[in-house]
Amino acid sequence: MVWSVFALCGCTGPASTGDLIVDAADDVPDAGAFDVYDVVVADDVLDADDARASDLPGDAATDAGTDTVEVPKPFHVAMISDCHSLPLELDQKPNSNLVALLEYISDGDETPAALFALGDNIEDMFVWFEDAQSEQPVPSIISFRDILTEFVKFPWYVVLGNHDNRFVDTFWGNDVPISRWLEYFDGTGHLPARWYSVQVGGFNFVVLFGADGAVDHDTNDMNILLPDQVAWLNGQLELGLPTILLYHLWLEPPSGESTGGDDADATIDPAGEIHPIFQAIIDHPGVIKATFAGHGHGFRHVRYADVDFYEVGDVKEADVKNGLDDDWANVLLDPIAGTVTLVNYDSIEWEINPAMQAGI
Q1: Summary mean pLDDT of the chain
Q2: Is there a cis peptide before residue 14, judged by omega within 30 degrees of 0?
Q3: Buried b vs exposed e over 156-184: b needs ≥16 C-beta within 10 Å?
Q4: How far apart are CA 340 and CA 214, in angstroms?
Q5: Which of 180, 247, 329, 338 has the smallest C-beta neighbourhood within 10 Å, fewest atoms?
Q6: Nearest by Cα to 290 from 252, 331, 321
Q7: Over 50: is that where the pLDDT of 91 sits?
Q8: For 17-60+70-357, CATH number?
Q9: Cα(305)–Cα(303) distance, rounded to whole angstroms?
């Protein structure tokens, strides 16, 4: 099964994603003194929205006669995926599952520094393409945005998935759906562009747009990064910060440790190119600490070239009655050690993980 395409039949994506990205973030408000967070859009560094807490992450350590020094400390982020929100009431599924999970995360012992929704945030745009093109309201996006705005009182960010740019299960290109998403999130900092990065507590969270090169329904289900986005990704990795990659469509890494030479399974596209994400890991060893994706509605964990690849299960079918600790990823990051740990790892029902692969 083909999971990724780097160059597909000579097709190209939007003529210039750079212009759209920069314009989409022009109105992101200044965060003032809360400089723990930076939002990076294309090559521009922008301050994020002012909803961010001043005590995340890091403590001020002061010695007599010396200046205050900011000491990084471990912090949590929440990863959720595949909410498939609908323009329904809050007590109707799947919205009620999303509300319950957000309340559960917010009421936990540790307030996350951020939450990332990893795509398929809505169950398609239930408007016709012509209506969306003529700027009629898109209730699915409004519903999802309003739920997170009401129930998440700490910073949160959106990754776009394959269902997020479809109209009643039909694909009409990226331009109209992306423009509508950016319109509804304009100035909020939650989705400043189709791809962007957020720096939190010494880590760089790099959000990718996997449908970048989609040309039809089938390719919209593949992880396709076009050259402009790949160049931007490599620029982010050249910063040298410990990096977390976030995208929607899960990529199956090859077995074993790759040298970029002979891997011939899911990392290779029909044009014979290794997928840019795996190539980035090879080209920037030690920079990418973990990746998080969604799409499969289950939890998977595999390792490739010392990088942990996690797939996060769906909120849509969350088992609210039997507890919600296994319906999200509670991620603990240590900026000094550069480590990434899932606090609720043992609570999750894994479809595959390294122990299972080893027969343990």
Answers
A1: 78
A2: no
A3: bbbbbbbbbbbbeeebbebebbbebbbeb
A4: 31
A5: 338
A6: 331
A7: yes
A8: 3.60.21.10
A9: 7
